[in-house]
Amino acid sequence: MTVTASANALRIGVAGLGTVGCGVLRLMARHGDVLAQRTGRPIVVTGICARDRRKDRGLDLHRFQWFDDPVELARSDAIDVFVELIGGENGPARDAVEAALEAGKHVVTANKALLAHHGAALAARAEEKGVALNFEAAVAGGIPIVKVMRESLAGNDITRVYGILNGTSNYILSRMQQEGRPFAEVLADAQARGYAEADPAFDIGGFDAAHKLSILTSLAFGTQVSFDTVYVEGIERITPADIEAADELGYRIKLLGVALKTDSGIEQRVHPAMVAKHTALAQVDGVTNCVAIDADQAGSMMLIGRGAGAEPTASSVVSDLADIARGNRVAPFLIPARNLKPYTRAQMRAHEGGYYIRLSVYDRPGAFAAIASRMAEQGISLESIVQRRKGGARDAVHGDGQGAPTPVVMITHRTMEDSMRKALEAIEKDGHVDAPPQMIRIERL
Amino acid sequence: MTVTASANALRIGVAGLGTVGCGVLRLMARHGDVLAQRTGRPIVVTGICARDRRKDRGLDLHRFQWFDDPVELARSDAIDVFVELIGGENGPARDAVEAALEAGKHVVTANKALLAHHGAALAARAEEKGVALNFEAAVAGGIPIVKVMRESLAGNDITRVYGILNGTSNYILSRMQQEGRPFAEVLADAQARGYAEADPAFDIGGFDAAHKLSILTSLAFGTQVSFDTVYVEGIERITPADIEAADELGYRIKLLGVALKTDSGIEQRVHPAMVAKHTALAQVDGVTNCVAIDADQAGSMMLIGRGAGAEPTASSVVSDLADIARGNRVAPFLIPARNLKPYTRAQMRAHEGGYYIRLSVYDRPGAFAAIASRMAEQGISLESIVQRRKGGARDAVHGDGQGAPTPVVMITHRTMEDSMRKALEAIEKDGHVDAPPQMIRIERL
Q1: Could you read off the pLDDT of B307-365 as tens digits, one per residue?
Q2: Which DSSP state fits B275?
Q3: Residues B173 and B297 occupy one common structural domain
Q4: Among A144, A386, B196, B442, which residue has the fewest nearby CB atoms (within 10 Å)?
Q5: How far apart are CA A65 and CA A73, in angstroms?
């Protein structure tokens, strides 16, 4: 049996019945009536598609027309909107989305990889066909950041968009912070609990955040999506010593995605960052995400919420469907895709900001003087210095010992990354440190 | 000279040229071009209206057609959208909005008092006429909470909406917190700096927050706006002693507006509340606002941003205009106004939660035992008790002294407000306290 939709119903095809796909079906089953009242017309799932028809998903799927091929569902006369929840930048997801647009169907997708790689082209196709391409669920799960940037900030010039865009990394950093345990140990535990994938590189390496950031960048600055140029650093090298020193200096370490307009272009970067402890962003712990925007009219704004999971992501998918049901349209990337400007990358070496530096310094005469002079050569001035003895006691800096290395932590004033890296390279070459320096950028909120 | 708008331009009339009105004109002058690109058509201010034509507003107003009477502007053939920035629940603002709707003009307003009192009726009229009634700027300034609730959460059942809705109160509480100074002193200073009105009662008494809350309640629960039933308590009675004790116990004191669905109806309340110190909401200081939502699908979500001021409020007005320019429509209160349910008020005495209690207890044998037994009679159990000596030192409770009153601070476990009030009435009647008890509700975030 298949669902018969009333004349003015919006008919939905859902491709991909994983966590989010099933979340969408459950949400529609639970709130379909109120949704119809709110949008003025029924929204009805008519067709579905997934790889394995026989898998038990805890849902009665007999009411829906089954498709084995997502492209076939995408083109089907039984649907008005194609919801792509398959995932992956190419393959069936891309084929099906392209087929849907070609057939004049609206598309809703949660697929950040697809958008990060083919966003502008797909948007252009959607615009030519006069259909919607909505992707609220692709960035930060249940947080309505796409709508806010496309609609609420229509009258604003945005200078920076940034945030905590990956729940797994934030969960790991939060637990390292709370428990003082090393990265590898917390990661293993997170994997055991299902908070991290068996292959965690995509999340902890910063690539997932980079996908999302590249979409936000395009929305913020009217530029073509440029995922390949995002500077990406993961959280693998963060140690309990960094987290402890950060705390002492008034900071928390967060994996941030930041897109910033500068004089030389746009910085797109994902990296661990020091953020002031007594800010709302610093309190965003666990799998929670947040996105902040600096806009010339609205000022600084932050949205905090659940960045993943069946229900929050389904909530965003359904909000996109509600817009389509109401006939409300906005260009996928706010301005017509053909008007998106080429992305001009600002070099990371031109980045300016404060830095946290942790060195493991051989405790011998002259070592610290040599380090300080390397900093001075590059015109870097220091805001604070902490030297720690092995016992963990804090001491004034006075290199009177010999031999075994001592951790030295420094916070610099605003400087250029090029200078910072040159100073660190020189320090390493001088042979006063027994391990590569740790460098963490400070992000002013 | 008047502006000639191109054929497909959206023509705007702005009534009220105070802070926000001038902010809108400046924003349109600065970003008009990009706004046209983003919405697909020019948005052009054609008519303006204010009380005093000769006042210097630092703007060149000669390009616009001047109207002395807002009702005349509202009905003018020169406009498609009437932007009401006059203020006030009745009088010219209401007259002009009604006239605009009657004439089939879209309406954008920042007027929370108007909506709190006449929201449902105006929404019904707008729906009959098939025009928009948008009011993003009426709640929390630049924070796009109306859009998020009307559109992004369309597929959600909301159980609670709450937040810091008044910047003046939050500014005063933040400074009391940071400086340890008493309310009256900080208020006077805030007035001198222009952060508080000469007559501050509307802000610090909680009424401004109540206006905004009543609108959020309607959006969250699909109920008729019911401002008169909001329980309102201001911040006048908060003392440095409360703020200090809160800090010690792990809390910050914030003036919250809370709308909560309960078994017996909806609680709408504005009052000072204890919130856990290590939460994002607790870090929202100064004039910043925030709104949080508990939704069944999206989960817990929070928006933080600037709650007032020319630019943030203008940003919200212009986002409403952009929606109208694009032809995007949503019912003012999410569902058709005729379907809004009557508001069923939950009695404050039925409120359940934890409480902070500060008593000034005569330091004599038996006083504390009497207090404890009054609590026990009402079935109230205590989570923590702190007794402070005059010197400020913290001591175990052991009523061994005599005479002069000692502050005693208690945190209760979850209890019913009726029980709490009865216990406090009995304690006061017993004569062991030399001042009325301080009672502050604890809000779980």
Answers
A1: 999 999 999 999 999 999 999 999 999 999 999 999 999 999 999 999 999 999 998 88
A2: E
A3: yes
A4: A386
A5: 9
A319 — contact with chain B (CB < 8 Å)? yes
Chain A residues lying within 8 Å of B323, measured CB to CB: 151, 328
Is B410 a member of any domain?
A: yes
- pTM assigned to the model: 0.95
Same domain, B171 and B101: no
Domain span at residue A106 reads 10-138
> Does the residue B362 lie in any domain?
yes
Residues of B designated as active site: 212
Among the partner-chain residues A38, A155, A331, the one whose CB lies closest to the CB of B319 is: A155
CB contact under 8 A, B38 and A278: no
The dihedral through the CA atoms of B268, B269, B270, B276 has a sign that is negative
Annotated catalytic residues of A are 212
Phi–psi pair at B165, nearest 5 degrees = -110, 0
Q: How far apart are CA A439 and CA A237, in angstroms?
A: 10
For tokens 């959280």, the residue is: A235
- Whether residues A283 and B284 touch (CB distance < 8 A) is answered with no
CA distances from B140 to A142, A431, B413 (A): 21, 56, 32
State the CB neighbour count (10 A cutoff) for residue B2.
Answer: 12
- Mean pLDDT over each residue of chain B, to the nearest integer: 94
First CA to last CA across chain A, in angstroms?
55
pLDDT per residue over B74-113, tens digit each? Answer: 999 999 999 999 999 999 999 999 999 999 999 999 999 9
Q: Do B319 and A153 touch (CB under 8 A)?
A: yes
| CATH for B153 | 3.30.360.10
Residue B167 CA to residue B302 CA, distance in Å, equals 16
**In terms of Cα–Cα distance, which of A35, A12, A303 is closest to B296?**
A35
Q: What pLDDT score was predicted for residue B122? A: 98
Strand partners, B163: B257, B291
Name the closest residue on chain B to residue A320, using Cα atoms.
Answer: B152
Q: Is B90 on the interface with A (CB under 8 A)?
A: no
Inform me whether the C-beta atom of residue A330 falls under 8 Å from chain B C-beta atoms.
yes
* End-to-end C-alpha distance for chain B, whole angstroms: 55
Shared domain check, B284 and B154: yes
Closest CA to A145 of A129, A162, A131: A162
User: Are the Cβ atoms of A280 and B284 closer than 8 angstroms?
Assistant: yes
Last residue of a domain, one of B120, B138, B156: B138
* ipTM of the prediction: 0.94
Mind listing the pLDDT tens digit for each residue in B358-414? Answer: 999 998 888 989 999 999 999 999 999 987 765 444 444 444 445 688 999 999 999
Question: What backbone phi and psi angles, to 5 degrees, belong to A242?
Answer: -65, -45
Reported residue count of chain B is 445
Tell me how far apart the alpha carbons of residues B158 and B217 are, in angstroms, rounded to a whole number: 10
**B328 inside domain:** no
Distances (CA, A) of B147 to A181, A286, A293, A314, B251: 42, 27, 17, 18, 31
How far is the alpha carbon of A361 from chain B, nearest alpha carbon, in Å? Answer: 35
Q: What does the buried/exposed string (b/e) look like for A63-102 if buried means 16 or more CB atoms within 10 Å of the residue's CB?
A: ebbebeebbebbbbebbbbbbbbbbebeebbbebbbbbbe
CB contact under 8 A, A314 and B155: yes
Residue A311 contacts B where some CB pair is shorter than 8 Å: yes
CB-based contact, A291 to chain B, within 8 Å = no
Cα R_g (chain A), whole angstroms = 25
Tell me: do A97 and A200 sit in the same domain: no
CB contact under 8 A, A148 and B153: no
The whole-angstrom separation of Cα A316 and Cα B100 is 35
Our CA-based measurement puts residue B269 at a distance from the nearest CA of chain A, in whole angstroms, of 24
Tokens 């309340």 appear where? B269
Helix crossing, B112-129 with B91-102: angle to 10°? 10
